[in-house]
């Protein structure tokens, strides 16, 4: 039996809620899976679908987007924009053949350290079950191989 | 070529216990563009910071990454250190390997691998950081207070007493707001007008306050420190400079039966009128809709009676443009129209009145000179039923929230009634008695124990007339039985709701509001008096239902915020704002729709002859808060967010 697959997950989070929630998980010394790498942004409204695609292209097995709860956005409604964008983006993911399950969306407030830890654990488990994301890797290898004359 | 310094902090054992710092420092030293990679026990300490500064100077570093605790802890510390070493502070990034790595993971190898990823991605980001300068915005030291009720007066007086200029705008012809309508105030039972009118006079006479009554805000442009406000002075048809307030005009006015707004319809007024005897300014206005002259061109009785020719029927609305540094919104509330509750019979039975109407009946300056007389026949009511929560805490028909003041004023009404009608009987239907506040619970106990108000816990289902008496059918939930109470008068504790035009007004000034139309604070707990727009503050019941002490506290808090803002000549702000590339911007205005702060303006691009070539988006640095929503919206990739540029984020992702 080989070692369990350790997925690589990139999380795009807003600095006001989820990043602070992740800090709280730290100060509370909660333990969770070490598979997630956080990219801090001012607001989920700043998160471009291109960031998510780039992460998947660069070898992430899953992506997590998390921000303030609806109504709690520091910037009044950046998270609503993110949510709308996500609804459209999910259709695009499906269309391009990327399983939408690999991209997750959630709300975590600055007070929800334990929710953050639980979420990271469950996301890691889910992605582990899905296995490595290699559909793209094949394609990238093919398209990026130099043309010969 | 980038020369990045990487500084890996052990944080004592906090990081070093789970992350192999020596290995990490060695690995980072190999990363392209990294000139220095060192570890130290505590970089935040004085010697630690000194070593960072020395490394910056010695190696002429182009950027640094501090791998340590959360940026929320020490970003400011290290940015300051950077600045002291002569490096732009925005060329410093923090890699969070404590809260988000060493403290939450147990496996040392995996934690070290994660720390390496985090640091590497920050190195990639910092390579693409730009030199940024804090944004400086000049401040106009003049405050605008909107609303002349108790909250507005308090804010205006506090700011003016501190020596700053204030412009106070009131929509009605007189200052005073709702507080001037009240009879006595809980929990002290002191006369409302006795404490209110001196403040109104003080405000009007204050050398630092410019008073604009019978005026409305037409438009608000600009941003914190630099608002441009246009005020519409509604035509009074009375020259404020010559009028002495003698009142001859009102006495002669033939239209005498207009229902008085100030007396909530219980009294009458003339077409040329002052709202109440103690009005400030004590000068009348002509109610154009009811004036005979404006209706059919005849009458002018008031003009004839005025000995100093102060009345001018040709007066027009005027506009005043103001330069303002900060705005206090204190626009107050209204009471909900209770006619929507058919079962309470408001509007159907004349003796069913609202709490505010009861205040007018109980007020010494009211239509009955302070005698509690029922509106239908002017008799003294022998029994009065008070119905609490007539609209509040009712998700089906009314509003979901608690109006906060009704428990207290109903207890006060029962007391006032008992003091004026010694053998009268007050019955109060209630859901809960919410009397949290200094002296409040004692007050409600006094109503029950000394003034013998009878509290019935339950709701009223029906109200009908029987032999000239009103029958009130309800339930006593403590006895578990339906009850029917006979009443000569019924007083409804109606819900406090936002002003009728609250939402439109919020759009005029550009602040956020909730589902009801109450104005939203920037943070319910930490920033309760600031609105979502920088430089606009909230006081009183326009934010949520409030009693007088709360309104005054909040008003004083806004004054302190305004004064803090005015204590500096220039404001300094983080330079994290959106920047537009005008060369590629196509002017699709997607960003305008996305921006929650109205920070994006349309800018004309003209050629040398002044011909308009195109319009592009311009991000106002004073208004932009740096959320970046517009950047993601931008179809042509013209907008970018300083500090979190597309390049930086992509590099960060690639570095992971």
Give a structural overview.
The complex is a heterodimer of chains A (149) and B (656). The model of chain A has no long low-confidence stretch (mean pLDDT 87). Chain A has helices at 18-27, 49-57, 78-96, 113-130, 135-144, and strands spanning 9-14, 36-41, 62-67, 103-107. Chain A has a single domain (9-144), classed as Rossmann fold. Chain A has 149 residues and is an alpha/beta fold. With 656 residues, chain B is α/β, with parallel strands linked by helices. Chain B has five domains: 4-127, Rossmann fold; 142-234 and 319-332 and 518-566, FAD/NAD(P)-binding domain; 248-305, no CATH class; 335-497, FAD/NAD(P)-binding domain; 578-655, Alpha-Beta Plaits (2-Layer Sandwich), CATH 3.30.70. Helix content of chain B is 28%, strand content 26%. Chain B has 18 helices and 36 strands. The radius of gyration of chain B is 32 Å and the shape is globular. The A-B interface holds A 6, 8, 10, 19-20, 22-23, 25-27, 29-32, 34, 37-43, 45-48, 50-51, 54-55, 58, 60, 74-78, 81, 85, 117 and B 70-72, 96, 98-101, 103-107, 110-111, 113-114, 117-118, 121, 512, 520, 532, 576, 594, 596-597, 625-629, 631-633, 641, 644, 646, 649-650, 652-654, 656.
């Amino acid at each position: 039996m080989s070692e369990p697959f350790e997925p690589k997950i990139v999380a795009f989070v807003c600095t006001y809620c989820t990043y602070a929630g992740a800090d709280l998980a730290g100060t509370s010394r909660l333990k969770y899976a070490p598979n997630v790498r956080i990219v801090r942004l001012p607001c989920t409204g700043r998160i471009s679908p291109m960031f998510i695609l780039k992460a998947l292209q660069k070898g992430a097995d899953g992506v997590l987007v998390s921000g303030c709860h609806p109504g709690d956005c520091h910037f009044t409604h950046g998270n609503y924009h993110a949510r709308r964008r996500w609804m459209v983006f999910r259709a695009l993911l499906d269309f391009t053949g990327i399983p939408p399950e690999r991209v997750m969306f959630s709300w975590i407030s600055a007070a929800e350290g334990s929710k953050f830890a639980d979420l990271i654990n469950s996301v890691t488990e889910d992605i582990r079950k899905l296995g490595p994301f290699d559909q793209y890797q094949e394609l990238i290898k093919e398209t990026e191989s130099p043309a010969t004359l | 070529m980038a020369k990045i310094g990487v500084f890996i902090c052990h944080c004592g054992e906090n990081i070093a216990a789970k992350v192999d710092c020596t290995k990490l420092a060695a690995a980072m030293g190999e990363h392209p563009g990294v000139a220095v990679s060192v570890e130290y026990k505590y970089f935040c300490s004085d010697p630690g910071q000194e070593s960072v500064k020395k490394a910056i100077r010695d190696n002429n570093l182009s950027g640094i990454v501090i791998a340590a605790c959360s940026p929320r802890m020490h970003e400011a510390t290290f940015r300051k250190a950077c600045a002291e070493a002569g490096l732009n502070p925005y060329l410093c990034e923090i890699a969070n390997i404590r809260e988000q790595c060493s403290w939450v993971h147990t496996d040392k190898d995996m934690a070290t691998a994660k720390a390496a990823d985090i640091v590497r991605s920050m190195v990639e980001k910092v390579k693409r950081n730009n030199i940024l300068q804090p944004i400086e915005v000049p401040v106009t030291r003049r405050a605008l207070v909107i609303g002349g009720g108790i909250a507005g007066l308090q804010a205006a007086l506090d700011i003016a007493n501190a020596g700053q200029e204030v412009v106070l705008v009131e929509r009605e012809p007189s200052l005073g707001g709702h507080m001037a309508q009240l009879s006595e105030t809980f929990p002290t039972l002191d006369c409302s007008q006795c404490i209110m009118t001196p403040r109104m006079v003080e405000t009007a006479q204050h050398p630092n306050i410019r008073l604009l009554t019978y005026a409305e805000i037409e438009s608000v442009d600009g941003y914190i420190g630099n608002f441009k406000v246009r005020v519409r002075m509604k035509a009074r048809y009375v020259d404020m400079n010559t009028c002495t307030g003698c009142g001859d005009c009102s006495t002669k006015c033939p239209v005498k039966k207009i229902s008085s707004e100030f007396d909530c319809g219980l009294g009458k007024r003339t077409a040329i009128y002052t709202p109440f005897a103690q009005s400030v300014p004590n000068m009348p206005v002509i109610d154009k809709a009811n004036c005979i002259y404006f209706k059919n061109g005849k009458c002018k009785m008031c003009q004839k009676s005025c000995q100093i020719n102060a009345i001018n029927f040709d007066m027009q609305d005027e506009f005043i443009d103001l330069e303002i540094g900060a705005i206090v919104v204190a626009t107050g509330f209204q009471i909900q129209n209770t006619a929507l509750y058919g079962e309470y019979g408001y509007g159907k039975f004349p003796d069913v009145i609202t709490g505010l109407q009861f205040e007018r009946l109980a007020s010494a300056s009211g239509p009955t000179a302070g005698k509690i007389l029922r509106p239908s026949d002017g008799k003294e009511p022998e029994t009065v039923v008070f119905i609490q929560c007539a609209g509040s805490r009712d998700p089906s028909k009314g509003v979901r929230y608690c109006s906060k003041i009704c428990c207290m004023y109903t207890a006060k009404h029962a007391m006032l009634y008992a003091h004026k009608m010694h053998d009268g009987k007050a019955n109060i239907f209630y859901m809960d008695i919410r009397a949290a506040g200094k002296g409040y619970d004692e007050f409600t106990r006094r109503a029950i124990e000394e003034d013998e108000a009878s509290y019935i816990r339950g709701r009223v289902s029906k109200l009908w007339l029987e032999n000239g008496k009103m029958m009130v059918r309800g339930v006593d939930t403590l006895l578990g039985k339906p009850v029917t109470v006979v009443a000569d008068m019924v007083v409804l504790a109606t819900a406090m709701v936002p002003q009728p035009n609250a939402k439109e007004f919020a759009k005029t000034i550009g602040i956020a509001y909730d589902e009801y139309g109450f104005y939203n604070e920037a943070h319910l707990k930490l920033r309760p008096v600031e609105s979502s727009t920088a430089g606009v503050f909230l006081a009183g019941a326009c934010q949520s239902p409030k009693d007088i002490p709360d309104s005054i506290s909040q008003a004083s808090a806004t004054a302190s915020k305004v004064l803090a803002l005015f204590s500096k000549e220039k404001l300094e702000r983080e330079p994290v704002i959106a920047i537009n590339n005008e060369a590629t911007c196509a002017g699709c205005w997607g960003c305008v729709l996305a921006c929650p702060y109205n920070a994006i303006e349309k800018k004309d691009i003209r050629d040398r002859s002044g011909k308009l070539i195109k319009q592009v988006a311009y991000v106002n640095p004073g208004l932009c808060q740096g959320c970046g929503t517009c950047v993601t919206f931008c179809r042509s990739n013209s907008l970018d967010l300083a500090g979190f540029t597309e390049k930086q984020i992509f590099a960060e992702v690639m570095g992971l």
